[in-house]
C-alpha cells in the first residue's frame, strides 16, 4: 500500500501545537530555575529552529540531485534557513559588547571626594549596573531575573549602611527570607570585597539606600512565593519589641505608653487599634475616609512617620529608622487582625511603575530630600 506524503498544511497542523506546548514547558522550567528572560527567549528560539528543521525534513521529496553542485547547494540551504532564523531572532536580544566591557575594565576607580549626594547615588547605580547586579536582582520594575531578591520591593534602603555592606561583602552570613536553598546561597558572588574600592562600595550603598517604597510595606520571599511584612511572624514579633519600647535601635519610642500594651489606649484620644472600623483622623489635610481595616499601607506609613497635627502623635519618621516603624505597624495591626485568625494573607502589592516612583518624589512622600 502506497503511503501518501503529508501536505505542507498537514505537516504544520501537527508540529505547530507540539512546538507551542514544548515552548511553554521550556519557558516555565527555565523560569523556575531563575534564568534571565533573555535566556528564556533564546531557549524558545532554539525550539523554533528545531520546528523549522522538522518541517523541512517532512516536506515532499524533491527531485533527485543531478550532480554534486546541486547536492551541495541543497545541503547549504538546509543549514542556512534555520541558521538565518536563529540569528535573526537572537540578534534582537542584548548583545555582548567587548569594547564596552574593556572600557569598564579600564575605567578609573570612582572617587567620592568632592561629589554631592545625588552624584554619589548616580555613581552607585553605575556600579550596580557594571557589576551585573541586574542579572540576579530586580529593582522594582527594572531587571529581568528573580534569582535574588527584588531590592526595590524588599526595600533594602530601609536597612543600615553596615548591614547592606555586610550583605555585599559576606552574602552567605545572613540569607534573605525565601532564598535559603543551596542554589540561592551560592548565587551571590563573594569577591566584591576585592573588586570594589572603599569609595565604590560607599557609592553602591548610597544607591541601595534609595531603594524604598513609601506606599507599601516591604515584601519578602522568592517570586512567586512572596509575602508582605504584614503576614511575617518574625517581623510581627520584632515589631512587638519596637511597639513596647524595648528595641535598642529606637530608644525613646514606646507606642504602648499611649496605645496600650494590649491595645487598650492609655491616653485620651489615642487611636484604638483594636477596632477595625475606627476611621482615619480628620486633623490631617490628607485625611482618607476609610476604616482601619481598609487602610492602605501608605496611610499607615504617613500617620506613623509624619505624625498627626495638634496631637501627641509625633512625626516619628524624623527621629527613628523607618525599618523599625514598619515593623511596629505590622504588630499594631494584629490588635484588630490577629495573625492566628487570618484565613488568607494580604496580597503582595504590584511592582510600582516608573511613573509611580517619580510621583513619590514630586508628591513629597519621602522625608529624606535625597530620595
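-> sequence recovered:
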Amino acid at each position: 500500500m502506497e503511503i501518501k506524503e503529508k501536505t505542507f498544511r498537514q505537516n504544520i497542523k501537527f508540529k505547530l501545537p507540539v512546538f507551542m506546548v514544548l515552548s511553554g514547558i521550556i519557558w516555565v522550567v527555565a523560569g523556575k530555575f531563575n534564568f534571565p528572560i533573555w535566556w528564556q527567549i533564546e531557549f524558545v528560539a532554539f525550539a523554533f529552529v528545531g520546528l523549522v528543521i522538522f518541517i523541512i525534513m517532512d516536506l515532499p521529496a524533491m527531485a533527485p540531485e543531478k550532480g554534486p553542485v546541486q547536492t551541495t547547494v541543497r545541503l547549504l540551504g538546509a543549514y542556512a534557513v534555520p541558521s538565518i532564523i536563529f540569528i535573526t531572532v537572537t540578534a534582537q536580544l542584548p548583545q555582548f559588547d567587548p569594547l564596552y566591557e574593556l572600557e569598564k575594565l579600564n575605567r578609573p576607580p570612582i572617587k567620592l571626594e568632592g561629589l554631592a549626594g545625588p552624584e554619589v547615588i548616580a555613581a552607585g547605580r553605575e556600579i550596580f549596573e557594571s557589576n551585573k547586579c541586574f542579572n540576579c536582582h530586580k529593582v522594582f520594575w527594572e531587571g529581568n531575573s528573580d534569582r535574588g531578591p527584588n531590592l526595590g520591593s524588599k526595600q533594602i534602603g530601609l536597612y543600615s549602611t553596615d548591614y547592606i555592606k555586610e550583605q555585599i561583602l559576606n552574602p552567605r552570613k545572613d540569607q534573605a527570607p525565601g532564598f535559603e536553598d543551596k542554589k540561592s546561597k551560592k548565587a551571590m558572588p563573594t569577591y566584591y570585597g576585592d573588586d570594589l574600592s572603599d569609595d565604590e562600595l560607599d557609592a553602591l550603598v548610597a544607591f541601595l539606600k534609595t531603594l524604598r517604597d513609601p506606599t507599601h510595606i516591604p515584601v519578602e520571599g522568592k517570586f512567586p512565593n512572596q509575602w508582605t511584612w504584614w503576614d511575617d511572624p518574625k517581623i510581627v514579633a520584632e515589631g512587638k519589641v519596637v511597639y513596647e519600647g524595648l528595641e535598642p535601635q529606637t530608644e525613646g519610642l514606646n507606642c504602648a505608653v499611649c496605645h496600650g500594651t494590649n491595645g487598650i489606649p492609655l491616653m485620651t484620644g489615642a487611636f484604638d487599634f483594636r477596632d477595625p472600623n475606627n476611621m482615619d483622623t480628620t486633623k490631617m489635610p490628607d485625611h482618607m475616609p476609610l476604616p482601619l481595616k481598609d487602610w492602605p499601607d501608605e496611610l499607615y506609613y504617613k500617620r506613623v512617620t509624619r505624625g498627626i497635627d495638634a496631637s501627641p502623635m509625633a512625626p516619628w519618621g524624623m527621629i527613628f529608622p523607618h525599618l523599625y516603624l514598619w515593623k511596629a505597624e505590622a504588630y499594631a495591626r494584629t490588635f484588630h487582625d490577629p495573625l492566628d485568625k487570618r484565613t488568607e494573607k494580604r496580597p503582595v502589592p504590584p511592582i510600582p511603575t516608573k511613573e509611580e516612583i517619580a510621583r513619590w518624589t514630586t508628591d513629597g512622600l519621602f522625608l529624606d530630600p535625597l530620595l
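The first strand starts at residue 219 and ends at 222.
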